[in-house]
Amino acid sequence: MSQAAVIPQNAPEVWKLPSRGIVGMACLILAEAAIFLIFVVAYVYYIGKSLSGPTPRDVLTLPIFATICLLSSSLTVHLAVSTLHGDKRRLCSLWLAATVLLGSIFLGSTALEWYHLIYHDGLSIRTNLFGSTYYSLVGLHASHVIVGLLMLTLALIFSLRGAVTTRHTERLQVLSLYWHFVDGIWVVVFLVVYVLGR
Amino acid sequence: MATQTPVPAVLDQTTSTACRPMWLEVLHDWVTTVDHKKIGLMYIGYALLFLVVAGFEALLIRIQLAIPNNTFVSPQVFNRLFTMHGSTMIFFVAMPVLFGFGNYLIPLMIGARDMAFPRLNAFSFWVSAFGGLLLYFSYFGGSGLYGAGSAPDVGWWAYAPLTAKAFSPGHSTDYWTLAILLSGVGTIGTALNIVTTVICMRCPGMKLSRMPLLVWIYLVMSLMAFVTISPLTAAQIMLMLDRYLGSHLFDTQAGGSAVLWMHFFWIFGHPEVYILILPAFAFANEIIPVFSRKAIFGYPAMVAATVGIGFVSLSVWAHHMFTVGMGAGANTFFVFSSMTIAVPTGIKIFNWLATIWGGKIRFTTSMMFAIGFLFQFLIAGLTGIMLAVAPFDWQLGNSYFVVAHFHYVIVGGILFMLFSAFYYWYPKMTGRMLSEKLGKWHFWLFLIGFHLTFDIMHIPGILGMPRRIYTYEADRGWMIWNLLVSSGAMIQTVGVLLFVYNLVRSYFKGAVAGADPWDGWTLEWSTTSPPPSYNFAVIPSVGSRRPLWDLKHPEDPDNNYE
Amino acid sequence: MAIGIHDFALPNVVHGKTSIFSPDATPAHSIFSLSMLVLAITLSIFLVVGGLLLYAIIRYRERLSDPDAAYEPAQIYGSNQIELSWTVIPILIVVMLFLATARVIYSTEHAPKPPSALDVTVIGHQFWWEFRYPKLGITTANELHILVSDPRHPTPTYLTMSSADTNHSFWVPRLAGKMDVIPNRINVMWVDPTTAGLYLGQCAQYCGTQHAKMLLRVYADTPAEFVTWVAHQRQPAAQDSSVAEGRTVFEHNACISCHTIAGTVATGRFGPNLTHVASRSTIASGSAPNTAANIRTFVDNPAHFKPGALMPPMHLNDHDLAAVTAYLTTLK
Ligand code: HEA
Ligand code: HEA
Ligand code: CUA
Ligand SMILES: [Cu+2]
After folding, report:
1. Does the beta carbon of B425 lie inside 6 Å of ligand 2?
2. Which helix (H) or strand (E) holds C219?
């Protein structure tokens, strides 16, 4: 048995397996979801356990506008994918640009909120348990928004330069999956921090 | 049907060793490689290096504990030793070596030419590798260059609030969290790669229900990694926020909870130990049938048991916390969930037994290690059941009985099965056989050393000796047992040294293996040893669980029984 | 350190000073009986499964004399009945084990507290134990005095535990299982020793450098002994004019910021209460016997017995050191 055996070719007619990009992204999302879960648990566990103020009730306001922006960006990114699939490349660039814009508005409003909290309300990550959990959870989400925005901007640049074709639909779709995930997480963060936590 | 043609020489570049490359070229080749086999070998080599380092730390621990009131090392050094020993063994020995074998074997076993994301694969390896180096750099830089020699000393669970700045000044704990964080990132990357490879890269005919059990188990284990390594990563991020930015997530002075960290750690920690044992089961599933000359008994049950273990193990973490005062309700819940794990695990044990039953056992070194594994895992699982009996654990927890339990699983189970895997796949990886003569010496020495160390170690636990103590009073009656335990560790060392010698010697002088030295049945044996960089000259296609069996026994192929 | 054959004798193992197999209080007893049941069950499982394994590897080994060496044995792929049986039998065993366990958990954790119970507050410190008797107004360290409990008139001791810094764990194997001592959290356990005497134990949760020398001594006193002990502990510190100089040294050094001596200006809480330090038989939670020489060495350089202990070396000159040692030894 010193020679390598070659397996006979009795291949079944149809042999189709799922695409790598989507499976990989699904795995990543699963792993990231677990990370977020832990941060959410920490947040919920520490609700009302701070030894000193300020409390969420004192300082948090509902970020309705930012939420609307972020959630609608899910729609725009979806449109970008489907227009690319239909080979309408200019439209795709447009929808990508809209997504980047909406995401940036969200990020900007988070930045504003933090600025306000730090300089007006005196709430920093060191202040109390609320500060610690608030900044870590919202910050973790914001960092994901940043990563997503960077990728989307990259896609936008390629698209504007005409380098994105229908061949890339699947890749864009993988990216859009990530972005949907970031949006979905925001719903959870929103409910936990701004609704349950107040 | 059964065609036995050699790989066409034109396709096979591995044999063309006309001009030998310079060492710099070789180095460059390895550092930049994205080939799953080379990455797998790098994982394995890296883990072996750390096995020797962490084993050396264990030796120092054992020397210190051999007699009471010993002053061989100071308490500070002792605490660093067990922290580094535990962290290294888990994160930089066990994890990389298992991923190394997975990396090497999975594409070969499913008839693929590489992993799904080769560059991610290389990235994951280098990130984990860097993590290990960072951990060891703390020996030099833990408190700035003045405080050379201050490694982390918080134990491998790093319980809060001991890790807070107030109790762990300096940077050694920072190195620890960073190292673990990086190892976690690498693990998730590799797990992602494995899942995608298994789902998307199988060769034609390789249905999920035909995959070798090893591949199944790595699939389950990788899926588990997403939901268990990530919590650890999250917890490390929080700890870093606490230490660098001054947040209070685990700061008991500011109302934070020490128990929260325990939960986070064990939500990772318990499934982690199953992530470690599952690959050992995976090796057993491949090796035991081949050396018993019988198909694995109850393939579907084995898959179901693996999935079952995966699920149940997510719900048992607090059996490491029976003594934190969770209350009777929570305690009973975790008693029950921990015990249910015995059922799927038992199915595995019994199926292996049934595989051997009626077979024709070949006592190669590989099989001997596998048989050792069966007995030792049985015992270790039963001591696990004792610990799962919460009241019993109130006595045994944090004593040397626990240390004995988990070394019994990890050394007696995982390490034995790893050695078995080395003897089994080394020929495939290098093209040379490991010396069986040295192997038998290695087996017997390690077996004796193992039992001397870890059988005896249960006794001081029963006599009330807590773990993580650097010394003990002479009047407690623990000395004689500790002396025996320590001498066992010495014998183990000789065994491991022999093994390393065997690895090196056989690489140059071992008998040439050929493609299929064990008369195996899975796809990796259908290509040359070592396989060419593209694995298969022609992508194979399979019609059953044991494609090579079908080739060798066309009169009685496997697909009749699926 | 001579080792004799008797070291291995079973009675020696079982009756060790800290053996979990020589219980002497209700919680430890119920754990002991449960553990015997568990050991019996697991041992039988081991014998059955291990026996079958051993049989299989001997019976089915490849024999050199095998006439048709080339043939493979019959391939058997599985059997539903057999597999079902080795799923169901373990389930039954698990259910049984679980029920037995749950009973002991509830009977220990939910035991009704009799009004005659003694209350002690336990505070874990890096690396010593503080014991307070809130109803008796006593504070002491490292050596716990409790009442022997007569099963007919039980006087169990309830320990209410918390930590001042990191996690610790209170473990006296012959009395009960361990219970963690965690900052920001209160845990309760109870013990009721049935015979008078000394019970040993130690901290069982890694808590820092000197985790190993955070030993515990629990004295189970008869009611008469206990009353005497309490009366003595409630007195302020002994006043002995022959060691007045030592007291002055103590009062004029940093000692007072960490230690309390009732009846003096020393009210520190960071270190053990020294009011009756000389009445204890060891110092620094069991690191050394309580002798004048050891106190002197310890005060001069705590790291001599206990490197990493949180008391700094006090750098007293020889004269002061002698004086303060003499003073401390009078604090009976
Ligand atoms: C590879 C790793 C591995 C594996 C597989 C296991 C397996 C098990 N372990 Fe272990 N364990 C560890 C690694 C592992 N453990 C480590 C590392 C620690 C300590 C970490 C630390 O503190 O540092 C630990 C600690 C630990 C504790 C905590 C002790 C303490 O700190 O107080 C407990 C408590 O319940 C426990 C229980 C179990 C159980 C019930 C199993 C079960 O899975 C065993 C199941 C197997 C069998 C039961 C045998 C086969 C079954 C049959 C033959 C069927 C018939 C049997 C019955 C019906 C009972 N383990
Ligand atoms: C993969 C996991 C793994 C492995 C393989 C081992 C292997 C061993 N372990 Fe380890 N151990 C842990 C994981 C592991 N351990 C963990 C997680 C902890 C808990 C840490 C904590 O509490 O935080 C622990 C804790 C631990 C303790 C308890 C320390 C304490 O609580 O105070 C002890 C004590 O005996 C010990 C001993 C040993 C021994 C003797 C071996 C032997 O089997 C090792 C055999 C291997 C060798 C001996 C290597 C060979 C060495 C050489 C070839 C070098 C020779 C070179 C020269 C002489 C120059 N281990
Ligand atoms: Cu206190 Cu260990
Ligand atoms: Cu566990």
Report:
1. no
2. strand C215-221
